[in-house]
Amino acid sequence: MQDRKIPIVALTAIVLVAAGMLIPTAVGADEAEASAKTAAAAPGNGIVAYYFHGNKRCSTCRKLEAYSEEAITGGFASELEAGELEWRVVNTDEKANAHFVTDFELVTKSVVLVEYRDGGVVRFKNLKLVWQLVGDQDGFLRYVRDETRDFLAEG
Fold first, then answer.
1. Which is more confident, 1 or 121?
2. What number of CA atoms fall less than 13 Å from residue 107's CA on the CB side?
3. To bridge 151 with a disulfide, which of 70, 84, 108, 113 should be the other Cys (CB 3.0-4.6 Å)?
4. CATH number of residue 114's parent domain
5. How far apart are CA 44 and CA 6, in angstroms?
6. Is 60 a residue whose pLDDT tops 60?
7. Burial classification of residue 142, based on how many CB atoms lie within 10 Å of its CB (0-12 exposed, 13-18 middle, 19 or more buried)
């Protein structure tokens, strides 16, 4: 009787480990697919607020994304609706998106404002203070909104 319990326990452990490995892969695949769709269509004309990240995402990186999205979607609803501004989240570790690293001189997770005209980049601004402000949500939101407002006004 004792001999039969060991294989059942071993089999159960293998199944649980395999299931644990598949679940994160499926979630990662969904994120990757969404990121690829978001980045794929190059804008013709207008301004895009990007949050660039990689495959490894710590809680601070996710906070940067959440605060950035809140700043843009909460502060520029009419501009987003009118198509003057777009919000995009892009995984630069995906092969199709790797060019953004050199295009916008990225060294880490970043918020970048980009103006496109006729499908080409006219200008861009990397909001480098986001890392310093991630511990101050109000300051972070104010900084991203002020920089975005100024960028929109210059365009």
1. 121
2. 4
3. 113
4. 3.40.30.10
5. 63
6. yes
7. middle
In the chain, the N- to C-terminal Cα span, in Å, equals 77
pTM of the model: 0.74
DSSP 97: G
Q: What is the pLDDT of residues 103-122, one digit of tens each?
A: 999 999 999 999 999 989 99
Cβ distance 32 to 97 under 8 Å?
A: no
Q: How many domains does the chain have?
A: 1
Q: Which of 146, 144, 155, 136 is nearest to 51 (CA)?
A: 144
The structure tokens listed for 86 are: 């777009």
Asked whether residue 4 is assigned to any structural domain, the reply reads no
Q: Which two tokens stand for residue 91?
A: 């995984």
pLDDT of 119 reads: 87
Domain residues for 49? 39-154
